[in-house]
Design a protein that fits this description.
It contains eight helices and four strands; from the N terminus they run H-H-H-H-H-H-E-H-E-E-E-H. The chain has 185 residues and is α+β, with helices and mostly antiparallel strands. The chain has two domains: 102 residues, N-terminal domain of the delta subunit of the F1F0-ATP synthase (Peroxidase, domain 1, Orthogonal Bundle), CATH 1.10.520.20; 73 residues, Glutaredoxin, CATH 3.40.30. The chain is elongated. The mean pLDDT is 90.
Length: 185
């Protein structure tokens, strides 16, 4: 809980700073880079949270990792966070920054889960449906889950449509368990 509050505050202040400096879009791309790195590299998170590694060493390593990849404002902000010994929250701050950016820009994320992926026609149809309901820009995030067998699950915010084959099979199982069958046929 504490980390989330810290991340939200730091992300908000960073959004305000980048808007003031006119580099919001570059900072958004930078934060997406950090989110991607933290999701794909567990060692990066372990490094950030390590109490054994001192602040100077962390700053030097972070400078090396992001050399030439981040804009000046983002780089300075990461150094500031590290100076304040808040680098353990860097991944959370980046996630929160991306969330707050999307909220500010009114961008909805539609998570589409299928058994085998979606093609361009379906992607376009999903975007049209979500845009029609929400009147916002839409970003589609695809997930593949073989366990749903077929069909799809679309989640936007706290709303979800589950049209998966696995869900239909579970509903049938539940229906059969509740029905009293007549024996003898």
């Amino acid at each position: 809980m504490q980390g989330t509050r810290v991340a939200a505050r730091y992300a908000k202040s960073f959004i305000d700073l980048t808007m003031e400096q006119g580099v919001l879009e570059q900072a958004y791309a930078d934060m997406q880079t950090i989110v991607h790195l933290s999701e794909t590299n567990h060692d990066f998170i372990t490094f950030l949270k390590s109490p054994i590694i001192n602040t100077d060493k962390k700053q030097a390593v972070l400078k090396e990792i992001f050399a030439g990849k981040l804009n000046k404002v983002t780089d300075a902000y990461i150094q500031l966070i590290t100076n304040k010994k808040r680098e353990i929250y860097l991944a959370e701050i980046a996630i929160e920054f991306v969330n707050q950016y999307k909220e500010k820009k009114k961008i909805l994320t539609a998570v589409v889960t299928t058994a085998s992926g979606i093609d361009d026609v379906i992607r376009k149809k999903v975007m049209e449906i979500v845009k029609g309901v929400s009147n916002s820009d839409v970003e589609i995030q695809e997930k593949i889950d073989k366990n749903i067998i077929g069909g799809f699950i679309i989640r936007v915010g706290d709303k979800q449509v589950d049209a998966s084959i696995a869900r239909k099979i579970n509903n049938l199982k539940h229906t059969f368990k509740e029905n009293a069958f007549i024996k003898g046929f």
